[in-house]
Amino acid sequence: MIGAILGDVVGSRFEFDNHKSKEFELFHPECCFTDDTVLTLAIAKALLPYDRITDYEQFKKELVASIREIGMQYTDCGYGGRFYYWLTSGKTEPYNSFGNGSAMRVSPVAWFADTLESCEKLAAATAEVTHNHPEGIKGAVAVAGAAFLARTGHTMTEIKEYVAQYYTVDFTPDEIRDSYGFYETCQQSVPQAFSAFFASTDFEDAIRTAISIGGDSDTIGAMVGAVAEAFYGIPEDMKETALSYLDLDLLKIAEDFTNKFMNKE
Fold first, then answer.
1. 157-162 long-range contacts, Cβ below 8 Å, gap at least 24?
2. What's the pLDDT at 264?
């Protein structure tokens, strides 16, 4: 989960000014947290009271409340138009989105779940409250499932085989870097995020590769960071720097979730 926050922070200054290279200052005064971090922590907060979830419909109601509570505190953090309308209108019904918002925010699920099956089911539930289009659900499930496998000691080959159930990732970052544009759908950003992770050599390299392909840089950074953290871990100094961009309210959620679910590893 901290990897998703870090990827969001690093990618924030490149979202509309892509940097098609792995050479850049990782943390910069222009960096900030965006909606990716806010909604990731809204999911984390909804999970905090639980040790196990059996009533998914009740959890989804609580998740909607958490997203609205946390989301309304940060209305200028870069939400997509349809999500912003959903958030501020008070609506509770999903709006059939297949945007990558479902995949950018799902990482807490990978640390909460104790089986791949429960991870996938919970990831789908977190998507369904807004992004109930099959592609929106698929993006969340694939990212969470890959992060869960990484967290539980599976190899890169095994993670690739898992992802292949959902997406064809038959290209490398080098092959798409020059032509890849700005896309906010799961279909056109989740496979590209996986290509960056599959090409990586360590956590920092994964983040740099994610940013270097361009596109929706903060969200691609968040998705790659989520899986890369679970696979490689994060150097402590990078983790501390990323968390320093959060305000006290968001930092408290991150620390509470980390202490309850991530420090048990």
1. 159/227, 159/231, 160/198
2. 60
